[in-house]
């Protein structure tokens, strides 16, 4: 099988911009040229200042300086298909002035949230369209609209965070408007993909997501199926819970003195970790297959795909692409190793995941000791 247009690099926070959101051209070029994936989805890129994530080194696409840097990265990688993931974090930020579908706070980020007014929603729709246009002008092949993992669009899709009484009580409406605006700004062949959580831990169900997919299937070119929100962040990725490292590098945890951290680890952590789902391979495949049955839209799947055998089986079942994140962090050259029995060397320790909330550029940290 020719895997080059079947296996994609799932969006992965790089932490390779400066504090003004300007991507470091050399660092991105080095990272992306080492990746054997033909198609690379960037880590989430902010579409407006008030949509920035808590990661200080997140890249943006809101001004000419950022766009010029992206254009240089594009020019340095003429053979790659580059897709920029566009995101507005909504309530999932520690920055002041967080906005959301409603005032319901994120129990992970804890920042107060202001519910968006209708005129502000219209502005954010335009921010997505402008960001997509900048990405297109920078030479990108497409964008992926981040509607998963509890970020702003997911907050509108979710029955838990969307308690609105205006027209946005129709939960898929905001995503639909974003996609229409992006499509109008950037006509085909520019690709418009979407990332969706098929369900979450707060009441969003597969039935909701099937209804959303029906609403958007003519407005985009593919949907990547994921899971969850940042409130239960480790359910998005699953696997190890490196709590020691979180107390060292995650700004939501490292403010606690060592004694408090040790107490928390000993007495609270055993209960805390019960909220997380264990890692199982291919954990979103069943939901993606169900979605595929009901739509003409190309469907991609991410989450725990770790062997060539599984990749072959998933693709032959009709899923259009598989999307890998941690396996590419561990083995950037993995596509050159697909001789029949490839098995990922990633053990899902999730040290990379915890570091992505720090100032460190993404890489594999397997084997590092991180005891508090
Ligand atoms: C270090 C790290 C950074 C990530 N950054 C993003 C991101 O920017 N946007 C996104 O949609 N998902 C992000 N994810 C989730 C992945 O794209 C992917 O959906 C998830 O890790 C499951 O795939 P895997 O089992 O192949 O790692 C990230 C995951 C990790 C581990």
- Give the neighbour order of strands across the main sheet: 1-2-4-7-8-9-10-11
For the sheet with most strands, the description reads: 8 strands, parallel, barrel
For the record, what is the CATH homologous superfamily label of the largest domain?
Aldolase class I
Mean pLDDT: 96
Extended strand count:
11
Order of helices and strands: EHEEHEEEHEHHEHEHHHHEHEHH
Number of helices: 13
CATH architecture of the largest domain: Alpha-Beta Barrel
Q: Your description of this structure?
A:
This protein is an alpha/beta fold. It folds into two domains: 7-241 and 279-355, TIM Barrel (Alpha-Beta Barrel); 242-275, no CATH class. 34% of the residues lie in helices and 12% in strands. The strands form two sheets. Strands 1-2-4-7-8-9-10-11 form an eight-stranded parallel beta barrel, surrounded by four helices. Helix 1 links the parallel strand 1 (7-9) and strand 2. It starts with 6 loop residues before the first strand and ends in a 17-residue tail after the last helix. The mean pLDDT is 96.
Fold topology:
Elements: E1 7-9, H1 25-34, E2 39-41, E3 45-46, H2 64-76, E4 81-87, E5 99-100, E6 114-115, H3 118-137, E7 142-147, H4 152-157, H5 173-185, E8 191-197, H6 206-216, E9 222-226, H7 234-237, H8 243-249, H9 258-272, H10 285-293, E10 299-302, H11 308-316, E11 321-324, H12 326-330, H13 351-355
Parallel strand pairs: 1-2, 1-11, 2-4, 3-4, 4-7, 5-6, 7-8, 8-9, 9-10, 10-11
The structure holds flavin mononucleotide (FMN).
């Amino acid at each position: 099988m020719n895997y080059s247009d079947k296996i994609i690099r799932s969006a992965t926070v790089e932490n390779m911009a400066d504090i003004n959101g300007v991507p470091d051209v050399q660092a991105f070029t080095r990272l992306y040229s080492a990746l054997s994936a033909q198609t690379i989805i960037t880590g989430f890129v902010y579409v407006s200042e008030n949509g920035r994530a808590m990661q200080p080194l997140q890249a943006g696409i809101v001004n000419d300086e950022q766009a010029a840097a992206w254009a240089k990265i594009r020019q340095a990688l003429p053979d790659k298909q580059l897709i920029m993931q566009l995101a507005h974090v909504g309530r999932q930020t520690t920055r002041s002035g967080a906005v959301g579908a409603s005032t319901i706070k994120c129990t992970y980020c804890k920042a107060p949230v202001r519910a968006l007014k209708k005129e502000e929603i219209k502005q954010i729709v335009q921010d997505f369209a402008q960001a997509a246009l900048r990405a297109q002008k920078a030479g990108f092949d497409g964008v992926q609209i981040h509607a998963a993992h509890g970020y702003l669009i997911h907050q509108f899709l979710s029955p838990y965070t969307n308690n609105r009484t205006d027209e946005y009580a129709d939960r898929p409406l905001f995503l639909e408007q974003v996609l229409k605006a992006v499509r109008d700004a950037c006509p085909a062949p520019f690709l418009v993909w979407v990332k969706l959580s098929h369900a979450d831990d707060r009441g969003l169900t597969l039935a909701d997501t099937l209804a959303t997919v029906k609403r958007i299937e003519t407005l985009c070119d593919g949907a990547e199926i994921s899971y969850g929100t940042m409130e239960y962040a480790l359910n998005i990725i699953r696997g190890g819970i490196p709590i020691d490292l979180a107390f060292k590098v995650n700004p939501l945890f490292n403010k606690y003195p060592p004694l408090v951290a040790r107490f928390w680890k000993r007495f609270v952590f055993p209960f805390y970790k019960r909220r997380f789902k264990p890692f199982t391979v291919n954990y979103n495949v069943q939901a993606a297959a169900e979605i595929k049955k009901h739509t003409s839209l190309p469907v991609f799947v991410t989450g725990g795909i770790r062997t060539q055998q599984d990749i072959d089986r998933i693709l032959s079942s009709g899923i259009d692409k598989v999307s890998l994140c941690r396996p590419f962090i561990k083995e950037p050259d993995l596509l050159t190793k697909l001789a029949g029995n490839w098995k990922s060397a990633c053990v899902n320790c999730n040290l990379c995941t915890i570091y992505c909330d720090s100032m460190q550029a993404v890489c594999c940290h397997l084997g590092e000791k991180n005891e508090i």
